[in-house]
Amino acid sequence: MIRAIERLMAQHTAGDPITGLKWTRKTTEKIARELRRAGIRVSKNTVARLLRKLGYSLRVNHKKLSRACSREDRDRQFRYIQAMRKDFESQGLPIVSVDTKKKELVGRFKNPGAVWAKTPILVNDHDFRSDARAKAVPYGIYDLRANCGHVLVGISHDTSAFAVDALAGWWHHQARQSYPNADHMLVLADNGGSNGSRRRSWKHHLQTNVCNRFGCAVTVCHYPSGTSKWNPVEHRLFSEISKNWAGQPLDSLETMLKYIRTTRTATGLRVTAVLTRRTYAKGVKVSDVEMAKLNLDRHRVLPQLNYTLRPQGTE
């Protein structure tokens, strides 16, 4: 029954990448009703108990939604993302969720959480940036179909070039083996940061470093502003990494990579991690001429949030 609930909740779940707490828009009555339609007789109270066992919790309203996107548009975008996921899955094409995890100071700094030990682990009494060996920027790629994660850890800036390098590395080293016949991928991303929908450099680097380089098309669907917790990478990858290194100081980049690579779950999650020492410059501009050259097709549904890039020179 727990497996049935997990499958039912797969596209209706949000979560906190630090605490691992999950929540959903569906009520226990609706879940019980859908399970009964599938031949599983269960009460709403039993559903509530099983949801708590799976890490879900009741949530209150938070005033965090941006007025830049209306409630109708948010609902429409969620339905569109769900439809796109079903479409790509039916074709056997890769679906990935991407985002930047919280930046971490590398050194003897306190890491939230607790571990079993005879004596406490001693860390610095203040988190001064000058005491850090580095400031790590983890960018995550979560493969929804394979339940696998890939993290590129940088020590420079969180730029669009860095984000696309993470995606290109995943495609080159993993996707081409997992999906040998795929020539199209679906990318689910937040609506801000290095992969924001308004970032010219994000689209430019996708065109040059993924589409043109590998000869594949990339469809991007952005979550509306203020709804990033629904992005699967947050609660299916980042939360598990945070739980794995909870209470452990990230005293070196090697320690950080080790905890990322050893992240596992009962449902089979596996994670790879790579370090890049490349310097990524901030404030790089993409001209109108370069933007005009992109092979960019905006979708009819909320075109600012949904678009497809194809290799240049193809229809």
How would you sum up this structure, described in words?
- The strands form 2 sheets. Strands 3, 4, 5, 6, 7, 8, 9, 10 and 11 form a 9-stranded mixed β-sheet that branches.
- It contains 9 helices and 11 strands.
- It has 315 residues and is of the alpha/beta class.
- It folds into 2 domains: 2-53, no CATH class; 71-309, Nucleotidyltransferase, domain 5 (2-Layer Sandwich).
In short:
Helix content is 35%, strand content 18%.
Write the layout of secondary structure elements.
Blueprint: H1 2-9, E1 13-15, E2 22-24, H2 28-37, H3 44-53, H4 71-90, E3 95-100, E4 104-106, E5 134-143, E6 148-154, H5 160-178, E7 184-189, H6 200-214, E8 217-222, H7 232-244, H8 253-261, E9 270-276, H9 288-292, E10 296-298, E11 306-309
Write out key terms for the chains shown.
single chain; 315 residues; alpha/beta; Nucleotidyltransferase, domain 5; 2 domains; nine-stranded mixed beta sheet; two-stranded antiparallel sheet; 9 helices; 11 strands; 35% helix; 18% strand
Mind summarizing the main beta sheet? 9 strands, mixed
Rounded to the nearest angstrom, the radius of gyration is 20 Å
Strand content: 15-25%
Output the number of helix runs: 9
Q: Write the H/E string, N to C.
A: HEEHHHEEEEHEHEHHEHEE
CATH topology heading of the largest domain: Nucleotidyltransferase, domain 5
Based on helices, strands and strand pairing, what is the structural class?
Answer: alpha/beta
